[in-house]
Each structure stands twice: as structure tokens, then as C-alpha cells.
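Human: If only I could read C-alpha cells as easily as an amino acid sequence. Underneath my words sits a plain record pairing an amino acid chain with its C-alpha cells. Take your time, and here it is.
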Amino acid sequence: MSTDLATALTEGPPLVLDGGLSNQLASAGYDLGDELWSARLLAEAPEAITEAHLAYYTAGADVAITASYQATFEGFAGRGIDRAEAARLLASSVELAREAARRAEATRPLWVAASAGPYGAMLADGSEYRGRYGLTRAELERFHRPRLEVLAEAAPDILALETIPDTDEAEALLRAVRGLGVPAWLSYSVDGDRTRAGQPLEEAFALAADAEEIIAVGVNCCAPEDVPHAVETAARTTGKPVVAYPNSGETWNARTRAWDDSPTLTPAFSATGARLVGGCCRVGPETITAIARALGRL
């Protein structure tokens, strides 16, 4: 459908984002214990990705995030995939989500957000939650720009610059999206009232305040209790719509390689004032349906 996402983010009720793509793929029996994570399935099981997107659209999501979070030219090269094929796989992530939207046969508009994760996601060593990779902003911009160009050419409704751990990478991404002709949102991974690298959120969001390409700002892959302060700070600092999609509230135990604690995410967090609300790690279709109902979307 042709309704403009930028308009929908400012008018009418809040929109619903999907949940964790990897969560849904793992539930379907796919092993994602791999440096490419869900991006591996772009080559090996693309239909599984379409089905995962479809599950979220059917659950009530208005926006689906593509399987390109950990998809990079460098990561694919490590698997012997040449640049042309890597570009095809990146672009296919958008088309797979589009196909899911077509299959959903929804009576409401459905949109596709092309994911671009942080540099640390490609390293697959946990540094995406720390930032400060030892690279200059120019080096980070050179890393991000080529895949953003490919994703933009595939014509998503928006680029999701997500799980960004620090302001250096945010500044690099703000430069990298210039002139692509596709709007973007900038979403930080946070710890309390700071980015994962320790910068105050007010400082971090202020970087995007005057960036024309950025039509929304927010947080993701964080604890549910971090959302209210972040949403208030993002809205006050930028005046832009806010996106919020926290984790379930469970904690990953690297020693036991298992999730500890119980989920703390409830649909109540959707009342914080964010205009695009969903979930990240360990958040599945059932929770997205509950959020959609809480927002009056179902």
C-alpha cells in the first residue's frame, strides 16, 4: 500500500514493529549459532525468513525489519561469497520481507525496514554492545556506506540503523545515509540513561536532531525498564517520532549459553509515547499481538 511511513509515524495511533527475527527462526528449528546469524539463511533458507516475517505481520506488526542486521560484504567474504553475490543477498532481504507483506493480505498498510546493524555485529564478538572499536569515524562510514547503498537501492520504506552502541558510530552512520533517497531511523542500544559506550542519551540523540534523513530516533535491544526515560529524552531532544523495541528482559548467560531470569516486558511499555513500538531479542509473535491490542491496532 502507498501510505507514507513518515506520515504514519506522526499521525494516528502508534505503529507496531515486529519482534526478534532470530527468535522466530530459532523457534522454527533453525540453528543460528553462526557468525552470520540470521543472515546465513538469506542464502541457505530464504523461505524461512519470509515465513518469519509473515508470522509477525499476521501477529499485528505494521513494520518488519529485514534479515540484514549482520549481513555485510566483509562477513560474507569470510564465507567465500563474492561481492556481487553479497549485494544480491543484501537486496534479497528487502524482497523477502515484501513477499511476506504480500502474503499477509492485510487490510492495513505494511512496511519494510532494512536493517543495518553496528560494525560490532559483523565482528560477532560482543563488541556491538560496547562500541569503541578503535576505528575512526571515517573508517566506520566507509564500512557502512556500501551496504546502505545496496539496501537503499532495494527500495525499503525506511533504513533501520539499529543497536548502535556509541556516538562515534552514530555520527558515521549519519554521514553514510546522506543522499541515499531513503529515510532512516537511528536506534541506540542503551544501559540506563546512557549509550552502551557510556555517553549521555541527550548528547547521543542530539546528533540526529538536524539530520534530514533521520525521521525517527529511539532505542532497541535494551532492558524494558530503560525505555521510558529514553523515549522522553529522544522526543525532547530531537522533536522527532520515537521508536522503541526492547528485549524481553531476560539475561543471556555467556557461561552457560542460556537465558536467565524471566521476561519482564509487558504491553504496558507501549504507553511511553513512542510512535513505533515492538520487541527485540526473545520477543515473539504472541507479545507483538499483545502490544498491538494494547495500542488498539487489533
